[in-house]
Hints:
Blueprint: H1 18-36, E1 48-53, H2 59-70, E2 74-78, H3 91-101, E3 104-108, H4 112-122, E4 126-128, H5 136-150, E5 157-161, H6 167-179, E6 182-186, H7 195-208, E7 211-215, H8 218-222, E8 227-230, H9 243-250, H10 257-262, E9 268-271, H11 282-291, H12 300-303, H13 310-329
Parallel strand pairs: 1-2, 1-3, 3-4, 5-6, 5-8, 6-7, 8-9
Bound molecules: phosphoric acid mono(formamide)ester and norvaline.
Amino acid sequence: MGVNVRGRNFLKLLDYTPAEIRYLLDTAAEFKRMKRNGVPHRYLEGKNIVLLFEKTSTRTRCSFEVAGHDLGLGVTYLDPGSSQMGKKESIADTARVLGRMYDGIEYRGFDQKIVEELAAYAGVPVWNGLTDQFHPTQMLADMLTIEEKFGHLKGLNLTLMGDCRNNTCNSLMIVCAKMGLHFTACGPKALWPEEALVNTANEIAAASGGSIRLTESVDEGTKDADVIYTDIWVSMGEPDTVWEERIRLLTPYQVNRKAMDNAKESAVFMHCLPSFHDTKTVIGAQIAEKFGITEMEVTDEVFESDRSIVFDEAENRMHTIKAVIYATLC
Ligand code: CP
Ligand code: NVA
């Protein structure tokens, strides 16, 4: 049976079947080929989308904007200070207003419940550009990048090192379970994913041939990994006061040469970005001054090494987001 996601929301990967995810990945790969070959694809000319950002962004915002323009769409960007949403107008009212004007709505913000509520009222597809719980568009880019590198997804060992409770880890666990990868969350128990989500992921993995493992052991977690993945130690929306504890808990889980050397020889390093691999950022410099560390979740050596595919991954945000917009609006 053919796959059709027209008119659907894209709120979390739990809502999508492996066949639907496969379709989005194949569509993204096709769009990437077209873009590379200069083949125009203004398939959605005459439609309009709006991007609501309650948190900052480089990749996600630019991906939606470029993808939208490539598809011939009109694109409106609303930053945290420039809409009434939440402050003077409820989510439900905002959704009903925007749904009258736009063909699709992207939302980046805090609680997953907000994006779910927007979707319930908008009457047009709503896309999750990151919430505290999930980051589903990132996952499509990650899977496309891994597939480009290894030629397949099923059976690969992917290890997430560091904060195993955040949006990136939650989403990676689910997408790996759906697509048949062996997922390892490698971090301190205090930062492991919620048990209910792990149970759900285990059930999904049982059907796909994948698996889910949680470990505090870096040696065990990185052994034979095909992909070592990490994310920042303090996510957007978390208070600055947690830095000290995170640094203490997560320093043993830094992706460094030793961790990479324990993985397969062909292993790659991935990161959703942005990354604190040096002190060339305001926060990186502040942390260096306060805590005396110049690299956090990944060393500069690994980040800049040949094994690092983080910029392919970043580029693929655009191609995969284009696939989501196209497939749901066409
Ligand atoms: N990876 C990611 O979502 O990046 P931005 O925060 O820059 O959008
Ligand atoms: N976990 C990170 C992901 C950034 C893309 C955050 O939420 O800040």
